[in-house]
Amino acid sequence: MPNPRLTGLGSGLFCTVVMFLLGCLDALLFGASMTTYGVLFLPVCVLTALWVREGDLLTAPVVLPIAFTLGLFPVADGKAGVLARLVGVFTGLATQAGWLYSGTLVAWVVVLVRRVSWVRGRRRT
Description:
Elements: H1 8-29, H2 34-51, H3 60-71, H4 82-95, H5 97-124
Helix pairs in contact: 1-2, 1-3, 2-3, 2-5, 3-5
């Protein structure tokens, strides 16, 4: 399994691009299913928290809600212009808050476990 180490900015770009592409794929294949989008968000959270480097660990849970929001644009239910799309994004954020909170919580747990093990490893040396 690859073991990349992303910077804080790199992890933000990674999860934002992946969530936007998954949103486009969800809209294309599954008819913009919000549940599918939420389920696809969870592995992105775990990968982002695992692949960020130790010095930037605390940035991973911060960029995930931003990536979730930007990835909602292709899935949002706005058919008549920009304002309708924004209303669809805000509606998606309100109705899919459980997926957003779950993914962010999973990322926080992974980050905290990695941070504790990193600090313990530094104390030993």
